[in-house]
Amino acid sequence: MARGDTLLTEGEAADDVGVIAAAVSAFHAALKLAPRARAPRDWAWTQCRLSAALRALAVRSGDPMLPDAAVSAAAAALEVYSFTASPLDWARAHALLGTAQTVRGERAGEPEWLEAAISSYAAAMTVYTRDAAPLDWARMQRNSGAVLSLLGEQTASPAPLLQAIGCYRAALQEYSADFAPLDWAMTQSNLGHALRVLGEQRDDFFLVQQAIDACRAALQVYTFDAAPLDWAMTSTNLANALAALGSTEALEEAVAAYRRVLDAIGNSPERAVVKYNFVLAERRLRERVTGLDGTASRPNRSGRHRPPDKCQ
Predict the structure, then answer these.
(1) Helix, strand, or coil (residue 46)
(2) Residues 93, 44 contacting (CB under 8 angstroms)
(3) Is residue 97 part of a domain?
(4) Could you read off the pLDDT of 18-34 as tens digits, one per residue?
(5) CA distance 46 to 50
(6) Would you say residue 216 lies in a domain?
(7) Which residue from 43, 84, 192, 245 has the least number of CB within 10 angstroms?
(8) How far is it, in rounded angstroms, from Cα 233 to Cα 256?
């Protein structure tokens, strides 16, 4: 167990698929050493850690079998944990189940899995109440917001996006730039993504401007030197919102932001989407400057929100 925990922490920090896979192997070995019949609580805890490792591996590897395995591991833990006997463990397992269901739903494009994830987070919040566990409550609100935002994009429906915005703003009642600045910045960036998507759906430039403001707020914490990956994600969110605003000044800033991100991220998997949006924003800017109005191409802005948190 200790080896698996260490490998999972190191693998996630380094974004190293091989190390995370080694963590999965370690947790499988632990399950053999402490089977359910002999040590049910240890077995359930190991299933929780295994679910976290499988979910982390699924996000990075793209293996279509891993999300199902992560869901199964968290569900197995809930065969042991109960709300009455071990409420905190029960809530943690539901939170893990929600993150696994989210990956499953996002990968397969199946809204029912996202709806199941929302239900799992709601169950966790019966224990993680705002009064009893305000930071865990805020984390579940943010995770719910991320799932609702995905659901709103998959279904092209404004209702889940409105709910997502409400969840993010609820989380920001507990997070601040001075207290929990990283959580505050992540939530601001995700809020910016949801506001921009809803603003584009409704052709509402007031919402897009709010998205820009939220991303700028997040970048007060997410600097390139302090958090390069989060800086790149949030800078992309900002560029997407500026491009959606569409004025000459906004497009100029969007092009510059996309260019900075492309210079920083190298050949990461996100590069193709950022490059596409950069080229499109450049084209729109040239057309504005020359007095043309070419907007036939659609931007590809999927996946620029922060996914639900890791659950330890």
Answers:
(1) helix
(2) yes
(3) yes
(4) 999 999 999 999 999 99
(5) 6
(6) no
(7) 84
(8) 15
